[in-house]
Amino acid sequence: MRPRVLRALEWLACQGEMMTITDPDMVQSQVGVLNKVSAILAVLEEGPAHLETVISETGLKRPTVRRLVLAMQELGLVEADQQEQFIVGPRLIRLARAAHQAIVHRELRQQLSALRATTGVRSVRLERRCDDQRICMAEDPRLNSAATDRKPARVAAMGDDPVSRVFLAWQELSQGREVWRDAAAECSAIRCRGWVQGVADGGLVLAVAVRGRDGELAAVLSLSSRFQRTRREASYGHEVITVAIEAAARISHHLRANETTGLVEGLEDRAQRVGPRSVE
Prior knowledge:
48% of the residues lie in helices and 19% in strands. The chain is built from 9 helices and 9 strands. The protein has helices at 3-15, 32-45, 51-58, 62-74, 90-119, 162-174, 181-193, 238-257, 263-272; strands at 49-50, 78-80, 85-88, 123-130, 133-141, 155-157, 195-200, 203-211, 217-226. The strands form 2 sheets. A 6-stranded antiparallel sheet has the order 6-5-4-9-8-7, sandwiched between helices. Strands 1-3-2 form a 3-stranded antiparallel sheet. A hairpin with a 4-residue loop joins strand 2 (78-80) and strand 3. Helix 5 runs antiparallel to helix 8 (238-257) and helix 5 (90-119) packs antiparallel against helix 9 (263-272). GO terms for molecular function: DNA binding; DNA-binding transcription factor activity.
């Protein structure tokens, strides 16, 4: 039990009455019932808890706790096992997953924005493969190009563009597919180099592999520019390629560090061992 809550409960016992007590560090809203629900969830953040534990930790009256817990069960915010221990429910697990994904996406956008600003390209994208399609995970286009440039689709079919060539390079060799000797040599070169560039959709595209665990391909980072701005050389220079490779390495580390593990997986494991049950 938290020391300050214990002292507060002891003080109230001396006064001969029981009131709503929550952790002094907890942010309070102007809605009393939300404060009570928040107090219950704060207890469950520490792990499974019996009804008596929730009552003693929050300082709420028994009828109040029972009423709120039953309502929270109906909403999927709380689950109870056969020992009447309560844990956070499946709806909170889904919310935790959504919050985690939102945070990861925001941080990715920040990294893509920094890369676009450094290189001066038209747009930067991060894509993953799903079967025979490329799916855009995050993108940072130049704002003043929106009116004149055709915005790439969020989902695109695999083709002969640089991004698809990186995806196919990993697929052909990792899955042991039979390919022509020249194609096999190109795939091997792309895997070794980690990037490829070329013309696609009227612009110059640089595609860089974002590696996952054990060297597998996690995603592809692409930089796109108007073809006109690179008339002298139909390719990106060494400096831009180096910056892009470094950015891909940071994104790779970011994706591995922010995989849905830890808290969310722990909550999912608990939920699998728990079945819905009402408070007796």
